[in-house]
Amino acid sequence: MIRTSRNIRALIMLTIIASGCVVLSGCATLGKDECLYADWRTIGYEDGAHGFSASRIGSHREACAKHGIAPDFDLYEQGRLQGLGEYCTLQKGYGLGVSGKPYVDVCPEVLEPAFLEGYSQGKIVHGAQMEVKRLKSDLKKMYRDLNGVTQKLGEFENELVRDNSIGPRRRKYLLEEIKILTDQQRVLAADIDGQEVLLESAELHLHELQAQRTY
């Protein structure tokens, strides 16, 4: 009885490990004991629930072949198809679209329309998120440029004011550079104002898209 109980606990632990490997998708292989005691229906279910295609079993087959063990494809596929019922939903489609990840055509025909509806909406939100991110990045660069011009302008103005010994050539150069930098400062400030308006509009659009989600 004790030995049987231990075997059951070991089988459960190995199944959890194997399933965790699928969830993390970072484990490329299964160990010998994992192959020996794997619950292929459960592994298939986990793979399906995470959107893996039928080709995923190839990785398991390759891992277990090293130990002379072949996966049970029928059990695996039964589990995977059941798992796809959990994956191929409007909500999961939306989440995949928002993440910017590609859809690999795994959903059964009867479930795919709802998934694709969510995926399409998610992709629109993802595009709006990327636009906000781009505008923020551009705005950050504009501020850096403005700070650089302002700093250089201050240095030239300070030199012109404090150093009475500078020659006429240097003075002429400083005056010309101050004019150029002042113009650049004015243009950058105007560009920043325009960029902030664009960013505010893009953020409002993003919030509106997110508010439209009803599931």
What would your notes on this structure say?
- By secondary structure, this protein is mainly α.
- The model is unreliable at 1-29 (pLDDT under 50).
- The chain has 2 domains: 2-87, no CATH class; 123-211, Helix Hairpins (Orthogonal Bundle).
- 78% of the residues lie in helices and 0% in strands.
- The chain is elongated, with a radius of gyration of 31 Å.
- The chain is built from 8 helices and no strands.
List keywords for this structure.
0% strand, mainly alpha, 215 residues, elongated
- The CATH class name of the largest domain reads Mainly Alpha
CATH architecture of the largest domain: Orthogonal Bundle
Radius of gyration from the CA trace? 31 Å
Return residue spans where pLDDT drops below 50 for at least 5 consecutive residues: 1-29
Number of helices, where a helix is a run of at least 4 consecutive DSSP H or I residues: 8
Describe the oligomeric state of these chains in a short phrase: single chain
Number of strands: 0
- What is the chain-wise order of helices and strands? HHHHHHHH
Main sheet, how many strands, which sense, barrel? none
Cα separation of the termini: 49 Å
